[in-house]
Protein: RING-Gid-type domain-containing protein
Organism: Malus baccata
Amino acid sequence: MELTAIKDGFDHVTKKQKLSSSKAQEVFDLIDKEMKQTLQKLQSYNGCESQVDCKSSLAELKVKLKDLAPLSQLESTQKELNLALSKYPKILEKSFIPDISKAYRNIDFDTHTINEIIGSHFYRQGLFEVGDCFISETEESESVAAMKSQFQELFRIVEAMKHRNLEPALNWVVTNSDKLKPNGSDILLKLHSLQFVEIVKGNRERALQYSKTCLAPFASNYMAEIQKLMGSLLWTGRLEYSPYSHLLSPAIWDKVTGELTRQFCNLLGQSYKSPLSLTLAAGIQGLPPLLKFMNVMAGKRQEWQSMKQLPVPVELNHEFQFHSIFVCPVSKEQSTEENPPMLMSCGHVLCKQSITKMSKNGTKAFKCPYCPSDVDSAQCRPLVF
């Protein structure tokens, strides 16, 4: 919506500019025409009466120019252009507020932690030289630099997969199989499936032998997936024209690469996505409501600096939600370890402090705010999401 308003405002300015320019050119052409005609007359005069004729022609030109009123003709279109130009910056300011300082608080950052996040971000992006330079200039410990070798290995695996080389990925999964099993990961089967399909493209016997060696161990748990792969053997050399052509989709490779990257980061104790990228993206999404709130509450800047919770609800997309959040429907406060959600006997949930308050510190039963049931606080149990 905001970008649409900006585009419409820009189109309006452009339209007015073209009209103003067209009108100016029209007026200039008329002036030029009258002046050229007068000049031709002046050049044609001869004899003693030429001076009188010249004065007469110049006077006539003056009258024509006055009747033409070029300034009056240009004034209206120029005013419309100036009005459009004056409104456009306001549209931009409304959509892109330059002063974001109102929406953040001055807090003490842990410089070491921030440097670790930035350094690891460079390594995650494959910017190893930039990461080394940053770590060197910030004089951070080797704990950050140790990430370099780990992410270098990941990038070697991913780069090989881009060229349809699965050997580094298979070696890494086999080496870490004991750590991957508790996560219920089937990444090894998916890698073997990709390799099998690559072989089926041109060699049926080799593909059959590969299935016996590498796919058979998964038959007891993944029979349906393996049966589909076996069916593709009938289309060796022409798989792209078969009912199994979807097995050749680059999207499958991208999905498996993403899953392997996720498993790799998980074993390192790192998040799948860069914390720096997520923080910036979430901050950008949460900035507009905070800016709007602070513009409304401009006179209460000091209160904003001391608040323990955000003063307004900030809705973030699903990718920024990493754990369940419960807000008590009575107190409207988010649950904490000290004030956990409690499941009541009727099946509804309130926070502990609300139950304590409504039950007069557990001395009496109370009505559930959502149903007519009587609730005994002693029967309420902590609810873990």
About this structure: The CA atoms of residues 39 and 172 lie 90 Å apart. The chain has three domains: 2-94, 113-267, 323-385. The mean pLDDT is 84. The two ends are 37 Å apart (CA to CA).
